[in-house]
Structures are given as structure tokens and as C-alpha cells.
Amino acid sequence: MHTGGFSFKSGKRVIIAGIVLSLFLIFGGIVTFICLVQHSAKADEKANRQKLLKIFTSKLELRLKKDLNETVPEWYIDKVFSSPELKFFPNLMVKRLTWKEAKLPYAQFLEKDRIKRAYQFLKTHEKLLDEIEKKFGVDKEVVTAIFLVETNLGKNTGKFPVFNVFYSLALSGNPLLIKPYAEKKGVSLSDPKVINFIKKRSNWAYKELLYLIQISYRNHWNPFEVKGSIFGAFGYPQFVPKSYIIYGYDWNKDGVVDLYQVEDALASIANYLYIEGYKMDSSLEEKKKIIMKYNISEPYANTVLKVAEKLKELETKSGGS
């Protein structure tokens, strides 16, 4: 009797264990099935986005060929769009939507070390800056301050291929291509204000792409080698392509505006402010308005003017002009 009871209990445990194992396997199978379905759905969604990307890219290329018909040959555009370096960055438009200019750390440029380095730069290139100031009527301290704030005196010009930046932003006018990235950041693509912003930014990027292709063709550049900021500004002065065409200045007279060359870069900064109406005898408020055309940001303009003021104070202390 004792032995039989033990066998009965053992058998009961085996049955229960079997049921538990079966349930576990069934549950595991269900989970695996759900994961496979989700994975398949994500793969299908990704494949669909890739198909859409090819379609929209082809349309963009045809549009560019039509608009550049009189200035750039079709073979050049074909070459660019068939390059393995062509990349679509779907997150850029979302970043632009959530960008907060006012939160940028402009105060860092007023630190003693930065001011000291800017002053040393000014003294090193004083002859050049004096000539630029005389030519354009723009304070050399303001030119130096912009050079500091824009790229830390040429140290930080950006690492993003500018062509791909404008290509991506132009294509992002098609919300389907950026939907997953917008959702991750909590950006609603059903919001009319968001859609309007995307449309305007996409149109702007397309126009910049037109300018960039013309510049690259004319200067015999590989457009993918031009690196800049996350939003397409390049060179020491951080110009977008349209600004390059309008304000770029060939100071050393070598036939090409090179924004990665100090002389051309500084002259181009001064030329920008000059064309926009900057005058050395204007009030600080008037100068601020002009500087804000360079970068539509009040904290930026205030920082540039404060840096320039500190540079002038150092010049006065050292007995400079």
C-alpha cells in the first residue's frame, strides 16, 4: 500500500509536469509565431519604404534634370544619382522639426580660453582682416567672432555629406519615408502645422540641391566630398549653397571660392554682412539685425557681438588699433 501510494503520487507529478511542459511549449510557440509575424510585417514595411524611396528618388532626379536643363548636363546628374555614396537620412527632417536653436550652448564662446584663441587668430591674421575691414566696411572683430562661433575658428566644419543632407530633406517632403522616425520622436504627421513645416523645408532643400549641383559641376567637385553640418551648411563660414553663390568671395583671386581657405572664408563672411547692409558706424541694435540675417537667432547674434566687444577690449589693452 505504501509503495503503491508513492507510485500514484509520482505518476500524478509526471502528468502535471507534462501538462505544464505542453502549455509552456504551446505558449512559446504562440510567442514565436507572433514574433515571426511582427518581424515579417516590419520586413515588409521596410521593403515598401525602399520601393517608395526608389520611386521618389527617380522623380526627384527627373525634376532636377528638367530644372537644370540649361546649366548642368544630364550625364552629370545621372552620375551623381548612381553613386554608391548617395544615402538617404530619414531622421534629418525629424531632427529639424525638434531643433531648439535657443538651447544651443552659445555661452561657451564667451569663455576666457575661446576669447584668447580668437584674439590670437585676429592678431595672426591682422593684416588680412584689416584689408577685409577696409574693403567691406565690416568690423574685423565681428568677422572673427562669426568665424569663432560658426566653426570654432575652422576646427568644427561638420562631417555630414552636404549633398545627402539636401537630398534627404528634399525627399522627406513625402511623409511616408519618415513616418517611423517621426513616431519614435512623438511627432504627429497628421498635424497640419507639422506637414506645412515639412513641405516648406523640403522645398527649401530642393532649391539648395539645385545650387549645390551647379556649384559642384562648375568647380569639378565630387559633391559627396563636401562635408558640413547636419542641416547642410559647409565651410568655415557655414554657408548653404545659395549663400555660397550670392556671398562667396574669391579673395585670393585663384578663380574659385574656397570656403575651407582662410582668406576666402573671412572675406565671404564680411561680404555677406556688407551685402545685407552692415555698417561699422551703425548702432548695436542695427548690427544685431544684420547679423541675425546670417543666422536667424537672437542668442547667436548677441554672442557674436559680445565676442567682438571682448576682442576690442583686448586690443585696447594691448594698444592695438
Bin the helical content: 55-70%
Number of strands: 2
The strands making up the biggest β-sheet line up spatially as: 1-2
Largest sheet: 2 strands, antiparallel
Number of helical segments with 4 or more residues: 13
How far apart are the first and last residues' alpha carbons, in Å?
A: 114 Å
User: Rg to the nearest angstrom?
Assistant: 29 Å
Overall 3D form: globular
Percentage of residues in DSSP E strands = under 5%
The tally of domains stands at 2
Structure description:
This protein has 13 helices and two strands. With 321 residues, it is an all-alpha fold. It folds into two domains: 1-67; 83-318, no CATH class.
Short structural summary:
By secondary structure, the protein is mainly alpha-helical. Helices cover 66% and strands 1% of the residues.
Give the topology.
Elements: H1 2-67, H2 74-81, H3 92-97, H4 112-124, H5 126-136, H6 140-151, E1 160-161, H7 162-171, H8 179-184, H9 192-219, E2 227-228, H10 241-247, H11 262-275, H12 284-294, H13 298-318
Antiparallel strand pairs: 1-2
Helix pairs in contact: 4-6, 4-13, 5-11, 6-13, 7-9, 10-11, 12-13
Please supply descriptive tags for the structure shown above.
single chain; 321 residues; mainly alpha; 2 domains; two-stranded antiparallel sheet; 13 helices; 1% strand; globular
